[in-house]
Specification:
257 residues; alpha/beta; Rossmann fold; 8 helices; globular
């Protein structure tokens, strides 16, 4: 397994209490980064901190609603104060919700708005606040790395999941746009498009739905959270030096482009 030197780096992971968040935090912290988990539910964050099997000095948590502009600004200021260098080197935009799994004609518009608020607006607000910090930092060797966690559904769509699929497609578009804006400033913005994994979100779907998803994956299995974490670790490292605005699949062969 490849190792990346993230010593001295500070990382923020939104949706930090979830399965992807914990696995990514463990991987980045094991590589030397100081990691802060952001999530909206405090008890889940406490459990997530305990689940990360590395030094507790490297993993902290903060209750943050990513749809709240002022809450994000306060959290960013607090992170910079807590960091020994005042830097924020890595942002993993992982916060996301599934929403209803219904045909479009039966989907509640309020649910669609909620999905977009978290999956798109939340990612936008975190990008907006944290890239402002990254742009002002000295390159060491880069100013910052951003990894947006989209989904294979954002590339291919999925029946009965219009809001989620569309929100993840929007996140891919956001990745490409912001990456172009920052391409000459040594702030690299990429996204990953994993297939479904055995996380809390997967438990919200029916057995029939899960079987449908598995049937679309040529490898015939779900992605493992540590496989996602390994991809994120590379994208957050100095080894990722000429990839920006890119989409990296973790789909077991499902992706068609």
């Amino acid at each position: 397994m490849n190792e990346y030197d993230l010593a001295g780096r500070t990382a923020i992971i939104t949706g930090g209490a979830g399965g992807f968040g914990v696995a990514i935090a463990e991987r980045l912290a094991a590589s030397g980064a100081a990691v802060c988990l952001w999530d909206v539910v405090d008890p889940d964050l406490t459990q997530a901190e305990r689940a990360v099997g590395v030094s507790p000095l490297r993993v902290t948590s903060r209750t943050v609603d990513v749809t709240d502009v002022e809450a994000i600004e306060r959290a960013v200021a607090a992170e910079r104060t807590a960091s020994s260098s005042g830097r924020i080197d890595i942002l993993v935009n992982n916060a996301g919700i599934l929403g209803e799994t219904k045909p479009v004609w039966d989907t509640d518009p309020a649910d669609v708005r909620k999905v977009f608020d978290v999956n798109v607006i939340g990612a936008f607000l975190c990008l907006r606040a944290i890239t402002r910090v990254m742009r002002q930092q000295e390159p060491r060797p880069h100013r910052g790395h951003v990894v947006n966690v989209a989904s294979i559904q954002g590339k291919e769509g999925m029946p009965y999941s219009a809001a989620y699929s569309t929100s993840k497609a929007a996140l891919i578009g956001l990745t490409k746009s912001v990456a172009k804006e920052l391409a000459r400033e040594q702030v690299y913005v990429n996204c990953i498009t994993p297939a479904a994994a055995e996380t809390a979100m997967a438990k919200l779907i029916s057995a029939e739905r899960k079987a449908d998803i598995l049937g679309r994956i040529p490898m015939g299995r779900l992605v493992q959270v540590d496989e996602v974490a390994r991809m994120v670790a590379w994208l957050a490292s100095a080894d990722c030096s000429f990839s920006t605005g890119a989409v990296f699949d973790l789909s077991g062969g499902r992706a068609t482009y």
